[in-house]
Amino acid sequence: MTASQDFLSSLTLLYVEDDPDIRVHMVKFLSRRIGNLVIAENGREGLEQFYAINPDIVVTDIMMPEMDGLVMAKAIRDKSRDIPIVVMTAHNDDEYFIRSIDLGIDRYVLKPTNPRFLIEAVEKCAQLLFSNRQKEEANRYVRFLLDAQPNLLMVITAGCVEYVNHAFLDFLGFSSIDHFNEVVKNAGDLMFNAEGRSINEEGYWLDLLMGTPEKFSIIYLKNQQSEMLVPFALKTNSLPEQNRHLFSFIDITHIENEKRQLETQAFTDALTGVCNRARLQGVLEAELHRARRHNLPISVILGDIDYFKKINDTYGHQVGDDVLRKFAKVLRENVRIEDIVARWGGEEFMVVSPLNDVNATCKLAEKLRRLIENERFPKVGRVTCSFGVSQAKREDSIRTLTERADKALYEAKTQGRNRVEKYM
């Protein structure tokens, strides 16, 4: 017995025929090959049986009382587009064939019916069913494997989302793939770069991902409920001949958090919490480049706590540290949000002030000087500070700009301290 014949013995077949002689003959023939044979004597009874038993294959005559075979077939097709339907007819009328084609009839057997031709037609349908069910079983197994993965997985076929696994649906807050497809019209709208910009701004997200995968090794996905952007490492696998792509998103939130913590530790002054000198070098280089490119002003303030060595010698280094912490706090809380405060070294601090010329920056330095003078520091009481201000020139490097600020600070010290001086 062949695999298709063996498969036949596991199927349910609905046989609809109004002629009792033909029906008896065919039932005797089919029952030896079909596992479960259900019989109806007209189209209406056949349709009732179809709804009741949901057969695997339908074989029907066309011309029958109460409801003809094609009317029944249309009702079946309205419920299921996949069930194979075989029609038997003695008519050569083109109208019947056109109606049959429109209904998507799978096979035709002419009357008077040769049982061998009928069983061949049924076997062809069974082979198709067997193949489809094998594919369906394979797809179900693939979906099972995808759903078992902790990573977020998405299958794109011909540019459209074919499948997303349970982990992806749970992350996005969708109950099912149907819910996903109802809400998400374009999967690219869920993806963002490190700057928080959608990678689908121009509608070519798939081409961008496949064309320059190294550029999108890190992708941020937006959770539909929280609106938060979460970082993922992106891996792609493709079947070019099927125009199918598998995207795997690996959550790297903990890595990103650790990276930020390390960056904070590496670029933050441990004592005062402001930028350290290493971080300031990068920030100042970027701001100088921006100022030159757009012809914008940028100035710096270099401040030094007056007589700080005396504070350490008199009260000890612990108190000196407390003074540095509070001094940095006053600076940080009284500059603009775009200004950068950094510890330059020892008791010296720098403020980088983008978009401010030397006069505006001198006013800011004077404001800071007064605030420091009027502040009361732990155990020490009154503390003063001297400030030097310089505005960047187009040809300036970090070194030449800070050297002029240092000269201005030196001038403030020699002029009696607790004052602001500028050096052009």
**Tally of discrete structural domains:** 3
- CATH superfamily grouping of the largest domain: Reverse transcriptase/Diguanylate cyclase domain
Neighbour order of strands in the largest sheet: 7-6-11-10-9-8
CATH domain class of the largest domain = Alpha Beta
Helix content: 40-55%
Shape verdict: rod-shaped
Name the beta content range: 15-25%
Number of strands: 16
**Count, helices:** 15
CATH topology of the largest domain: Alpha-Beta Plaits
Structure notes:
By secondary structure, this protein is α/β, with parallel strands linked by helices. It folds into 3 domains: 3-139, Response regulator (Rossmann fold, 3-Layer(aba) Sandwich), CATH 3.40.50.2300; 149-255, PAS domain (Beta-Lactamase); 268-422, Reverse transcriptase/Diguanylate cyclase domain (Alpha-Beta Plaits, 2-Layer Sandwich), CATH 3.30.70.270. It has helices spanning 3-8, 20-31, 43-53, 69-79, 94-103, 115-148, 166-172, 177-183, 205-211, 253-267, 277-294, 308-315, 317-333, 358-374, 398-414; strands spanning 12-16, 36-40, 57-61, 85-89, 107-110, 152-157, 160-164, 191-192, 218-222, 229-239, 244-251, 298-305, 340-345, 348-354, 385-391, 420-422. The chain has a 6-stranded antiparallel sheet. A 5-stranded parallel sheet has the order 2-1-3-4-5, sandwiched between helices. Helix 5 (94-103) links the parallel strand 4 and strand 5 (107-110). Helix 3 (43-53) packs parallel to helix 4, helix 4 (69-79) packs parallel to helix 5 and helix 12 packs across helix 13. It is rod-shaped.
